[in-house]
Amino acid sequence: MFTGIVQGIASVDDVSASPGLSTLVIRFPNDKVEGITIGASVAINGACLTVTRQENNALYFDAMQETLRLTTLGNLKPGDEVNFERAARIGDEIGGHLLSGHIHTAARIVDIQRPENNVTLWFEVPKEWTRYIFPKGYIAINGASLTIGEVTGNRFNVHLIPETLRATIFGKAREGDLVNIEIDSQTQTIVDTLARLGYDRPTPAL
């Protein structure tokens, strides 16, 4: 499990493709790999991956075809930066909301607004996922636990303070970028349960 509090930014050193998977070599800040072990779980842009090898502060991860299909990890190339979070431990503060690291879909940044002292990002998601997106609800974007602002059709926004921009790759976000989305599990459970009881939420018109 993860908390959605991004612990830092890491950089992609290498990506190698083999039949059925890709191996990612990602370099972390030196102080963020202390105590890491082979088999440990780390969220990379929100996707839970397993450490398969370590060389100093470079960690190796294998991403299977299903992971590459559902997430943006297949688009990574050397030099790209990613958000990371190591798996939560019992007793850790839950500053965001509980995440599984299982990505549901990808969204595209369609607009970036820069009012004074913050940034507003607008995202567009596939229509079928809008049923789980509510104003003021939780969502994880590239592994960061965020609060949804406005929702219009299959678009929604989030408001980011300077500290979030500094600590994550959102500080370099551009229109057209794809991001990983993990829907809040409690929201999904409630919506699906109500749908089974006949109280389905209509999909917003586009």
UniProtKB/TrEMBL annotation:
Each Lumazine-binding repeat, start to end: 1-97, 98-194
EC number: 2.5.1.9
Pathway involvement of the protein, from the record: Cofactor biosynthesis; riboflavin biosynthesis; riboflavin from 2-hydroxy-3-oxobutyl phosphate and 5-amino-6-(D-ribitylamino)uracil: step 2/2
Known function: Catalyzes the dismutation of two molecules of 6,7-dimethyl-8-ribityllumazine, resulting in the formation of riboflavin and 5-amino-6-(D-ribitylamino)uracil.
Coiled-coil residue windows: none
Lumazine-binding domain ranges (all copies): 1-97, 98-194
GO process terms (BP): riboflavin biosynthetic process
GO molecular function: riboflavin synthase activity
InterPro entries the UniProt entry points to: ATP_synth_asu-like_sf (IPR023366), Lumazine-bd (IPR001783), Lumazine-bd_dom (IPR026017), Riboflavin_synthase-like_b-brl (IPR017938)
Protein name: Riboflavin synthase
Record field: catalytic activity: 2 6,7-dimethyl-8-(1-D-ribityl)lumazine + H(+) = 5-amino-6-(D-ribitylamino)uracil + riboflavin
Species of origin: Marinobacter salinus
Segments passing through the bilayer: none
Keyword set includes Repeat: yes
Keyword terms, alphabetized: Repeat, Riboflavin biosynthesis, Transferase
